Amino acid sequence: MSQHSKENCHLSLAFFSRLICCRFVIHASSLKILLAFTLFFSATLPLAGQTPNTAFLSCWEGKDRSNFQSRRAKTPTAKSSGGFAYAEAIAEATKDMGEAQFCKNKVQLFYSKDGSDYKVVYEKAGLEDQGVGIRVLGWSHTGSQLLVEVGVWGYDRDADVVKSALALDSTTRQVHELPLADAFERVLGKDCEYDSSIVGWSSDDSVLVRVAKTPATTRYNQTFCVDKPTVYAFNLQSGNLQRSAP
Description:
4-stranded antiparallel beta sheet, flat
């Protein structure tokens, strides 16, 4: 190969190397811009405000459910000697190729000892087209435990909300579920249908729970065992239930 051909070859290789490098830099820059663009819009969901909507936040609003979009709601911060805590609920709106609408929820509980550096201590994400809500019911009298209620329901079917009660220990920062279902089964029976909701603290070791009759339905055979709304006190130490005074 002649010296002139070698020089042309080197020039060609240098040109293509720079071209490839330039294209790589452009693609990398475009990828960074696209990633930043995506993260920006995924982080700016409309904030529904500090309202009880965290319990039943939905992607649909309005009487005709025409306002369909992703939403976020946040509870007020619960403060005590044990720390600071608040909860958030996110309802993520999606559509398929046929423009069918779907909604999926996620809830998170945040805790901070001094109110400055919050960490997620509990998180629950719903399945596809499943709603999840959360209520913060406050700290115990000594501020050692935070009471929380979580509800789960399906957007695609007419089903009751399944609720569970949780307690956050401010010392260990651990969240555990209260065994209310087992306690009520011992009191009301195994094949018993009822609706329950957490009322709040009765004492540092006792939580008030309200039970009532569920709405009638033709979807299945119902077995009722609660005639009128009744409040029970659940003891966290013994796991027993006792009727609370009116």
